[in-house]
């Protein structure tokens, strides 16, 4: 559906003879914009369903911030990607709700688990893909950014969990956990 819409919009934009060479570029750019908007809309809807709108957005943005530079698993089709995103978002929102309803021991376990995830991100990132191979300079730069972002998110989540912003802290923790999970999935994908 998104592919069809982006193709039609690109055709309209390329009706002018000056832009016919850029059709594929326009189509791809429109596809990326529409896909991103669709994913964000889904995150918003799930946040509203779980009554965790802010938390769902914080989770999504922290996950995307790390994933952009750490890399990780990519589904073979857009539909699989979307289904994986929806399922993982639901699981993480359930974890946030659960963490908020239990005692401090679970919170401390989550923090320790997040620290382990940050260490794994430091050790494994970046993991590129066949569609987006990274040269040695990009790998070095992406690793630096992935490490910096994940460590900053860890520190902010620790502060939030230990103050009155627990749900935000849990959301950040879930973003780090999800980023690590897709890194591990990509590592398995590479080795097979």
From TrEMBL:
Regions that span the bilayer: 28-61, 81-99, 105-124, 145-162, 168-185
Pfam families (alphabetical): AgrB
SMART domains (UniProt xref): AgrB
Cell membrane is among the record's keywords: yes
Keyword line: Cell membrane, Hydrolase, Membrane, Protease, Quorum sensing, Transmembrane, Transmembrane helix
Presence of keyword Amino-acid biosynthesis: no
Designated name of the protein: Accessory gene regulator B family protein
Lineage, opening ranks: Bacteria, Bacillati, Bacillota, Clostridia, Eubacteriales
């Amino acid at each position: 559906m998104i592919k069809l819409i982006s193709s039609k919009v690109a055709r309209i934009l390329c009706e002018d003879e000056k832009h016919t060479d850029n059709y594929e570029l326009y189509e791809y750019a429109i596809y990326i914009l529409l896909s991103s908007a669709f994913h964000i809309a889904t995150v918003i809807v799930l946040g509203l369903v779980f009554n965790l709108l802010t938390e769902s957005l914080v989770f999504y943005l922290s996950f995307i911030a790390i994933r952009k530079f750490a890399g990780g698993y990519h589904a073979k089709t857009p539909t699989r990607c979307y289904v994986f995103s929806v399922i993982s978002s639901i699981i993480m929102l359930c974890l946030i709700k659960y963490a908020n309803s239990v005692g401090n021991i679970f919170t401390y376990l989550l923090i320790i688990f997040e620290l382990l995830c940050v260490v794994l991100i430091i050790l494994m990132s970046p993991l590129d893909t066949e569609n987006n191979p990274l040269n040695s300079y990009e790998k070095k730069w992406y690793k630096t950014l992935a490490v910096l972002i994940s460590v900053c998110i860890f520190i902010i989540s620790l502060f939030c969990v230990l103050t009155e912003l627990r749900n935000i802290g849990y959301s950040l923790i879930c973003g780090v956990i999800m980023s690590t999970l897709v890194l591990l999935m990509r590592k398995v994908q590479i080795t097979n």
